[in-house]
Design goal:
Blueprint: E1 18-21, H1 25-36, E2 41-44, E3 56-59, E4 62-65, E5 71-72, H2 80-89, E6 95-97, E7 101-106, E8 111-115, H3 118-128, H4 133-155, H5 161-179, H6 183-188, H7 194-200, H8 216-225, E9 230-233, H9 238-250, E10 254-256, E11 261-267, E12 270-276, E13 281-283, E14 286-289, H10 293-300, H11 311-314, E15 322-330, E16 343-346, H12 352-361, E17 370-373, H13 375-378, H14 382-386, E18 390-398, H15 416-436, E19 444-450, H16 452-459, E20 490-492, H17 502-517
Parallel strand pairs: 1-2, 1-14, 2-10, 7-16, 14-20
Antiparallel strand pairs: 3-4, 5-9, 6-9, 7-8, 11-12, 12-13, 15-18, 15-19, 16-17, 17-18
């Protein structure tokens, strides 16, 4: 496991072409692409390790990812995502291909398997719902049209402002035909079968909004992304940050941890540097924030007069809800326990919106979704360092307000009442797991629950947001969500610029680096 270099004050006297705040996927991609184009970059990470949602943590013989559970398309070497990962990792990042049955959608009466490739998925859906063949075929066509129409929409974000403004109506019109409608609206126009709707939207947890709230564009991005199967990084999710940081450093850049940024320094309407929490000021021609929209404008620019123009923009977006994740360690291997790497999506009914609403109103109600992931079964290299052990992650929806009374307490020192709440919730989540994966019950030797407060402490999201900005139709109408900000030389990168997910954050880095360099860096992909 790579050791990260802590911040040292002498960096304040070094010269850099760009400073990137935050080392999530968007920040690392931006930094690597700029470094490969001759720019000397500095990546500042508040945490004690880099990677954002792609980092992992260890307890004894166990290791868990914190945000990456599977990625589509990267097993295809010609796919754009794979080529971009290869570019920024110098082809050192390798992938384990999951079982063709990548997701299982489970309801009280029956289960539905999502199986790759696309043709098998369609055949299985028609087998489950033989009377809905036309609706299923139409739905698949809608997925294709929505994704295809999104390419110019996102490409517009990388253009210089005056060019983007001129081209915006032409590059976005087709996309808004899908993005402006909710997932429920689109699928309901194709079928009256509520069970089919519930099954097709069984991955809504991947983007955090049930069908009546989410933009159909987001449903299309996720559903189509996995049609040819899922993948997991060989050596765990931390290999992404390890390999990409190697490329940054080999090309003259620097990545440092324990380097929390207090504010972005703006002079006469231009971003000129950053002030760290220890008071050090570092300057560079370009400042790039990978900390999220709300952190950037509410926190890092809160005392700057230039920031006033962004308040109206922030009022047009909203944070996603949070989640809890139970990290489980087992004293037998995945093979011994006969664990597949198929993700489980467990529901109490087909009406996802109603399930969510009832749970948010009363946390004692059944969980609206329980997602179960088996990272040790997904990683082809797991046994090299963890022989005889296995891990599971169990995730469900949560809400910041349920934990806010402990928000002032430090991480891991929030008191007995907090720990008791966590224990009760953990037991409820274990009950669901044991019902569907009973063979693991006698092998559990470790469990640890992360809450919205954990997300706030370690990922720095203000209210423990699961996915940054909510993926409603309104979100995609926010023209200002682009790399270049109203403050000269201040740029944004990360999932808030594009959409949720590691692959989307990856592409945000390409957009941001292209905007900074004022040229289309996708030409670097071979």
């Amino acid at each position: 496991m790579k050791k990260w270099t802590s911040y040292k004050p002498d960096l304040a006297h070094d010269l850099f072409d760009a400073i990137i705040i935050g080392s999530g996927m968007g920040g690392l991609t931006t930094a690597a692409l700029l470094a490969l184009n001759g720019k000397r970059v500095l990546v500042l990470e508040k945490h004690f390790k880099i990677g954002g949602w792609t980092h992992t943590f260890r307890r004894d013989s166990f290791e868990w990812d914190v945000g990456l559970h599977y990625i589509g398309e990267v097993h295809k070497k010609w796919s754009v995502a794979r080529r971009l990962f290869d570019l920024i990792s110098d082809s050192q990042l390798q992938w384990s291909y999951m079982d063709k049955n990548y997701d299982r959608i489970i309801f009280p009466d029956r289960s539905y398997n999502f199986v790759a490739p696309r043709e098998q998925f369609i055949e299985d859906m028609i087998g489950y719902f033989p009377k809905e063949e036309n609706a299923i075929q139409a739905y698949m066509n809608y997925l294709d049209l929505a994704v295809r129409s999104a390419r110019p929409y996102f490409a517009n974000k990388a253009l210089p402002t005056f060019m983007a403004d001129l081209a915006y109506p032409f590059m976005t019109r087709k996309f808004f035909k899908y993005a402006d409608r909710t997932t429920y609206d689109v699928i309901s126009s194709l079928t009256d079968d509520r069970e089919l709707l519930g099954v097709l939207t069984g991955q809504w947890g991947d983007y955090g909004l049930p069908p009546k709230q989410s933009s159909f564009a987001m449903q299309a991005f996720v559903a189509r992304h996995y049609l040819d199967g899922g993948n997991y990084p060989v050596g765990s999710a931390r290999r992404i940050a390890e390999t990409v940081s190697d490329v940054i450093e080999k090309n003259g850049g620097h990545v440092t941890v324990n380097a929390g940024v207090q504010k972005i320094v703006v002079h006469q309407g231009k971003a000129v540097g950053v002030e760290l929490e220890n008071g050090d000021v570092l300057e560079a021609p370009f400042i790039i924030s990978n900390t999220g929209i709300f952190n950037t404008f509410d926190r890092l620019l809160q005392n700057d007069s230039v920031n006033g123009s962004h308040h109206a923009d922030l009022d047009n977006i909203e944070k996603t809800d949070s989640y809890v994740c139970l990290h489980i360690g087992l004293n037998k291997s995945a093979q011994e326990l006969d664990l597949s790497n198929t993700n489980l999506w467990i529901y109490t009914g087909y009406d996802h919106d109603r399930n969510v609403l009832e749970y948010i109103r009363d946390a004692d109600k059944d969980f609206p979704v329980v997602y179960v992931s088996f990272p040790s079964a997904k990683d082809d290299a797991w046994d090299e360092d963890h022989t005889g052990y296995a891990t599971i992650e169990v995730i469900t929806l949560s809400h910041w307000d349920w934990y806010s009374k402990w928000k002032a307490e430090p991480w891991k020192k929030r008191g007995k009442e907090y720990e008791k709440e966590k224990e009760l919730l953990s037991n409820r989540m274990l009950d669901v797991l044991y019902k569907h994966v009973p063979q693991v019950k006698d092998s559990l030797v470790y469990s640890e629950l992360s809450t919205p407060l954990t997300v706030n402490s370690l990922a720095n999201y203000q209210k423990g947001e699961m996915y940054g900005i909510s993926h409603t139709p309104k979100r995609f109408r926010q023209k200002w969500l682009r790399p270049q900000t109203k403050i000269k030389n201040l740029y944004l990168t990360g999932q808030d610029v594009t959409t949720v997910g590691v692959t989307s954050a990856l592409f945000s880095g390409l957009l941001t680096a292209s905007a900074v360099m004022k040229k289309n860096l996708s030409t670097m992909l071979k």
